[in-house]
Structures are given as C-alpha cells and as structure tokens.
Automatic annotation (TrEMBL):
It comes from Litoreibacter ascidiaceicola. The lineage of its organism: Bacteria, Pseudomonadati, Pseudomonadota, Alphaproteobacteria, Rhodobacterales. Residues 16-285 form the PBP domain. This is Phosphate ABC transporter substrate-binding protein, PhoT family. Keywords: Signal. Residues 1-19 form the signal peptide. InterPro entries: PBP_domain, Phosphate_ABC_transporter.
Length: 326
C-alpha cells in the first residue's frame, strides 16, 4: 500500500510540476533566413487571434534543429525553421530523444545571393570563379582580379554565414561542390578557406548588410529576401550570367537557389495553445500563397499544386517517415 501511495504521490507531484512549467506561448527557433518570414507570421498571428504572439529566435538552421531534436516537453521548442532540409542524422537524433513525429513544411524558395553595396564594383561571377576564390584547397588568391582578369582589382573579402547556418550548407552544396570540377580543384573534402578572405559574420544577416554598407568593396553571402528588402542600398551579382531576381529564382534559372522549411513537433500540438493554428497560418494562402503577405517580404512562392499538398500535410500533421532521403 505504501508503494502505491508513493507512486500516486510522485504522479501528483509530476503533474503539478508539469502544470507549473507549462507555457502558453509558442517557441520557434532556427534559420536566420526564415526568421523574418516567421516573425512576420508570428506578428500577424498575435494581432489576428486570441493567442499570444509566438517567440521567434534566430539560432541558425543547424542550431535550431539541435534544440528542436533535444526532446519533447515545454522546455523544448515547438517549431524550428531551416534554410535547408533536415538531415537524416538529425531525424535520427530527434527519434533517439523521443521526438518521433515531426511534420515537414516547405514554405517557398529563396536564392543565395552574392551582393555588395551600391556604389561598389559590380561583380559578375561564375560558380567556378567563386570556388577558385574561396576554396581552402585552391590557389588562395588575394584579389578578385587574380581569379580572373575580368573581375575587379579589389581584395577578396567575403562576409558570410558560419557552419551552423543552413545558408552556409546550401552555399557549399550549390556553389563549392557544383563548381569545383570546373575550377580544377578536387571536390572531395573541399572546404572554405579560413585565412581571412572569408569572414564568418554570424547568424544575423542584417549585420552583414550594415557591414557591406560600411565597406562597398566587401561581398556578402545571404538570402535573396535580404537583398530584396535592402535593394535601396545593395546590388546583387550575376552568377553564371543570371541575375538574382524574383522571377529567375522562381523559374529555376538562377543557379544558387533552395527550398525553405519549418518543422512541427507534433507531440506539442494540443499542449501548446495555438500551435496548430500558427502552423496553418504559416501555410495559408494569405501568408505563403502566390499573393501572400510573405511574398512582399521576398519569399518566392511554391507552385499552386505543391503549395496545396504541403498545406494539407500541415493541417493533417502528416509525419515524416524517415524515407525522405531515399
């Protein structure tokens, strides 16, 4: 009997602790690229519903997924944003920590741009030239003109995201790994140089923008939305002869483009007030549709049929299966 009483007491204490720890505000972490879109949805959600405005943190895609996959419970985030797809090893980390049901949503597309301040030199580059300029295994040129005489006679100074960033992952995949063979540099094990030519500028893309304004000869690497929102002070560079424009990214002509994601912790739906409603707002036609308010912020919308499918998956909380990488 005493054992039963002890167990019952422990259950009551656990329930009380759970109630005490419960929160009524959605917590979102992850990508700095998705951050402005997620923040816009959170603000709209807070204004238009009776739920509290979600808290959105910019931690980087990798950092956000690490936090998201750490476990189930109110001490862990409900949603993580990512500017790349969750990796298979991250899916396993989630499962190992009890996060067994996760819904994946693609909100739209984004381009990774090479840009600098207006008034600075106009840079028209190929992916091969970018690899030559930035590969640790390459010739380590000091000036852009050392890469190719057609490029400006200015020092190579690139401000870009750190390894924890999904933008960095996508840049390495879409530029470094795609351009290495044409640049005559071994693709296996290729990395970005660490001798000062490439400067890790943190997860705050707005900080990169301000640094570019201060140094017109410096080049920045970040998502198209930040170029779009700062087009009065920044200019984008053509890559492989294609300008980084809304239409070129939408139709796939611009070579450095990727999908943007968010991930829902299904176990938190029904526990954290408004979580399902917030996810539905994010994938609503009013937000991420072709005429949605996120398009005004620089989001490249999905084709209508793809959008409808993903929006439906979010509404039904269709979980990932683990076969997404096959």
């Amino acid at each position: 009997m005493s054992f039963v009483k002890t167990v019952a007491s422990a259950a009551i204490l656990a329930a009380a602790a759970s109630a005490a720890d419960a929160r009524d505000q959605i917590r979102v972490v992850g990508s700095s690229t998705v951050f402005p879109f997620s923040t816009t949805v959170a603000e709209q959600f807070g204004r238009s519903t009776d739920f509290q405005t979600p808290v959105v943190e910019s931690t980087g895609s990798g950092g956000g997924l690490k936090l998201f996959c750490a476990g189930v419970g109110t001490e862990h985030p409900d949603i993580t944003n990512a500017s790349r797809r969750m990796k298979a090893k991250e899916f396993k980390l989630c499962a190992d920590n009890g996060v067994t049901e996760v819904t994946e949503a693609i909100i739209g597309y984004d381009g990774i741009v090479i840009a600098n301040a207006k008034g600075g030199p106009v840079l028209n580059v190929t992916r091969e030239q970018l690899v030559t300029a930035l590969a640790a295994q390459g010739p380590l040129p000091e000036m852009w003109s050392d890469v190719d005489p057609s490029l400006p006679v200015i020092k190579i100074e690139v401000l870009g995201p750190p390894p924890s960033s999904g933008t960095r992952d996508a840049f390495e995949e879409l530029v470094m790994h795609e351009g290495c063979e044409g640049a005559g540099i071994a693709c296996e094990g290729i990395t970005i140089r660490e001798d000062g030519a490439y400067i890790e500028a943190g997860e705050n893309d707005n900080l990169i923008v301000s640094k570019l304004e201060a140094n017109p000869n410096a080049i920045g690497v970040f998502g198209f939305s930040f170029l779009d929102q700062n087009s009065d002070v920044l200019q984008g560079s053509s890559v492989d002869g294609v300008e980084p424009t809304f239409d070129n990214i939408a139709d796939g002509a611009y070579p450095v483009s990727r999908s943007l994601y968010f991930y829902i912790k299904n176990a938190h739906v029904g526990v954290i007030p408004g979580l399902q409603e917030f996810a539905d707002e994010f994938m609503s036609d009013a937000a991420a549709g072709e005429e949605g308010y996120l398009v005004d912020k620089g989001l490249i919308p999905l084709p209508e049929d793809v959008f409808e499918t993903i929006s439906g998956n979010v509404k039904s909380l269709s979980p990932m299966t683990g076969n997404e990488w096959n």
